[in-house]
TrEMBL record:
Coiled coil: none annotated. This is RNA methyltransferase. The gene is spoU. It comes from Micromonospora andamanensis. One of its GO terms (biological process) is methylation. Pfam families: SpoU_methylase.
Length: 172
């Protein structure tokens, strides 16, 4: 006879979670700075909430609407605006943040080898078709690659960002 699986009730799950939201900008920031599809932003915001991260998004007119439409949380998520993406990344690096880019690059480390974020870390996601622009690649401290066995060359921004956020947060 196989062991039975006990599903935890919502009350028990809530008791193990944070009693309030994380402090803003304190440790982990997801930065989809060149988004192509708005639906990915809402999904990524949900992951940010799950791992205690903030979302940094560019000031495109359609971004606010996309985040609002995709946000399935019962409260506003932790979202900040960046202005010029490269300038914002440079300022983060100057403040001492560790900059991790999710990119297919010769020097990229595999997702399994990515260490947990030990200090303020910005995870940068590029455009789904063109990736992270060259001027921003120069600001990365490391690049991480998500291994794939299928025929596609990359995952969408929300899926890739979610996988890397969970790894950086030390939850996998």
């Amino acid at each position: 006879m196989s062991p039975s699986i006990r599903v935890r009730p919502r009350r028990e799950i809530r008791a193990t979670r944070r009693p309030r939201a994380h402090r803003c900008w304190d440790h982990l920031i997801a930065a989809p700075l060149w988004p192509m599809h708005g639906t990915n932003l809402g999904t990524l915001l949900r992951t940010c909430d799950a791992v205690g991260a903030c979302l940094a998004a560019p000031r495109f007119r359609w971004v606010d609407e996309a985040i609002a439409r995709g946000n399935t949380l019962r409260r506003p998520g932790c979202v900040h605006r960046t202005g010029d993406p490269v300038r914002w990344l440079r300022a983060e690096k100057d403040r001492g943040a560790y900059i991790v880019g999710v990119e297919l690059a010769d020097e990229a480390i595999r997702l399994a080898d990515l260490p947990t974020a030990g200090r303020r870390t910005v995870m940068v996601l590029g455009h789904e078709a063109t990736g992270i622009p060259p001027e921003a690649l120069d600001l990365l401290d490391t690049a991480v690659e998500i291994p794939m066995l299928g025929t596609g060359h990359s995952l969408n921004v929300a899926v890739a960002g979610s996988l890397v956020l969970y790894k950086l947060a030390g939850l996998v």
